[in-house]
Amino acid sequence: MALVVQKYGGTSVGSVERIKAVAERVLRAWKAGHGLVVVVSAMAGETNRLLALGQAVTDRPEPRELDALAATGEQVSAALTAMALRSAGAPAVSLLGHQVRIQTDSAFTRARIRGIDVARIREAVAAKAVAVVAGFQGVDAQGNITTLGRGGSDTTAVAIAAALGADLCEIYTDVDGVYTADPNLVPSARKIARLTYEEMLELASLGAKVLQIRSVEVAMKYGVPVHVRSSFSDEDGTMIEPEGSGLEEVFVSGVTYDRDVAKVTVAGISEAREIAALVFEPIAKANVSVDMIIQGATREGTTDLTFTVSKADGAAAKELAQKVAKKLGAQEVLFDRDVSKVSIVGLGMRSHAGIAARMFRILANEGIPIDAVSTSEIKVSCLIASRYVELAVRSLHDGFGLGGEGNGAPPAAKKSVRKRVRR
After folding, report:
1. Which domain, by its residues, includes 28?
2. pLDDT tens, 151-169?
3. N or C, fewer C-beta in 10 Å, the chain?
4. What's the pTM?
5. In terms of Cα–Cα distance, which of 206, 102, 204 is closest to 159?
6. How many angstroms separate the CA atoms of 381 and 372, rounded?
């Protein structure tokens, strides 16, 4: 039988009743003879509650202590899930990060996994027991508890699956798969049956919240098949797997958006040499990640440099840009938090021309100005004013025919959706 790693998110274990329901689901797979490892998140809202307690004690809690505090949420879930499984009739043992020995670096609150000793998990599986592992946490070389950042239980599950050579990693959540767009914005959005690692990685990095980006990176590196599905139904979800036959027939797989964007423009730079290096070196030293970058000359002979960062890094990026602007003799530094990024993703873009042009035409037909563009082999992203996000996502979803059974190719020309989308 198969060796399967199942991960259950916070909503899936959000109450005693839901933990019992998870136990029943796991029990069915265990009775079918599968080897099972179950990774659990903290109960819904618990991590936020714990972090709020830390902030209530001190305005500047030490990251090390925050990790020690936050990791207790998964400890509770793991113990309760193991208890529920034993009560349901399946032998189970709960294991914390340091017991499994999920080795990480020492970057508290955002640690990265360096290695996993799966000997104890293999012992449990060999004994026909269910290993219930606390997600989100690990231990550094000094024995300190570390956490992997928001959504880190996804990465725990995929990394364990990779270390075990598991046949499948199932990610159970409160949605039944990955959709062509956010169903809250686009009622016609449909579930995608299959995605490649590359497509899921782009979707996750561009705003889709279904999987943590690092979990997709691990899955792609080690070839772990991942099935994203709902813990509240038995329907198939979305399979994420290596590129296979037929997948390039899909022009556009999905439309996504990201409101967590701020734009910084260093305008009217008189000295053009080494602009990018002088602006971005101090930003890099401050550990601020930059996304889109646009540099262009003006009619007056000066240069403008525009880039985007997350809203959380916006103030720091603006301050650093202002310092550099003085050295460059720039006229001003402009800052805008009212921007968002909309993107289309599809493996077929590599072999089909005109997809980007079609995207630009769809947005133009709706009167949506584009501030900046970035591309890769399988995605096109446009920076727009935040007030246009809903209109843009719905227009692109309709414009590429993603609501039906099509392949994301541009359908016949349609009338503007402006009238039925509130701006």
Report:
1. 3-174
2. 999 999 999 999 999 999 9
3. N
4. 0.84
5. 102
6. 8
Position 20 in a domain: yes
At residue 206, φ and ψ (nearest 5 deg) are: -100, 10
> Is there a domain that residue 377 lies in?
yes
Within a domain: residue 415? Answer: yes
Torsion of CA 269, 271, 277, 278, to 10 degrees: -70
**C-alpha dihedral sign at 268, 270, 273, 278:** negative
- Residues of the chain short of pLDDT 50, as ranges, are 245, 247-248, 413-423
Residue 345 counted as domain residue: yes
